[in-house]
Automatic annotation (TrEMBL):
Record organism: Actinoplanes awajinensis subsp. mycoplanecinus
Domain ANTAR: 177-238
Keyword annotations of the record: Kinase, Transcription, Transcription regulation, Transferase
InterPro entries named among the record's database cross-references: ANTAR, CheY-like_superfamily, GAF, GAF-like_dom_sf, GAF_ANTAR, WH-like_DNA-bd_sf
Pfam families: ANTAR, GAF_2
Name this protein carries in UniProt: ANTAR domain-containing protein
GO molecular function, one term: kinase activity
Amino acid sequence: MTSPDGSGRDLAPADRVGRVLVTLADTLGDDFDLPAYLQQLTQHCRDLLGVDGAGVLLADTVGTLRIAALSGADVRRLEQAGLTGGDGPSVIAFRTGEPVADARLDPVEARWQSLADPARAAGYRRAHAVPMRRGDQVIGALSLFSRSARPLQPPGQRLARALADLATISLLQHRALTTQRLYAAQLQQAFTTRVVIEQAKGVLAERHDIPMDVAFTRLRQQARNSNRRLADLAREILGAAADDPPDGTGPAQA
């Protein structure tokens, strides 16, 4: 049975997990909101895994790991410290493509010294990081922080990995769909541009009584000489063609 606020916190664990998995898989709609999706992922981690903080770090277009979503300001300080030092659990998980399990922050292990101060200030004692990975492609990392001295147990680790894996697959699908849509738009633009260029070639061929291939050569040469895009020059020629005098002066000269 659902809770009064509709959050699902009173559902049996399996049902709650099922609902979350469905939510995380839904990235293909036109109304998909990436920041909201990532923020929701951090909340799901807190709700299902019983951790106190969570963060999502994603690689940008040049492969630099950046903070994408956080459950709170205290997690930001931890993640930022790890990024700055280049040795935080999330950074290591992203770099190696393998989980970082049971990183002890209190007392802090030597390898996590960069996190000592922000962890102490926020009361975090344990960290766990999972790479967001699909095959050989690692797009980021999911990090979990706990104020409990008890490490994340194997069932929780497996669920964390499942959440990270599903989010990764869903984000890659969204990226592919976005790329496909962009390609489709670019392809349509190419089709439209081709028609414009063909029409401009026809104007020049008729005006100068030259073959179409010669008209195209002249059109391309004028575009280069004037440092303009071919399509822009073609549109200018079409727009001015009706008003150009018969001797071919003006933009339709080409």
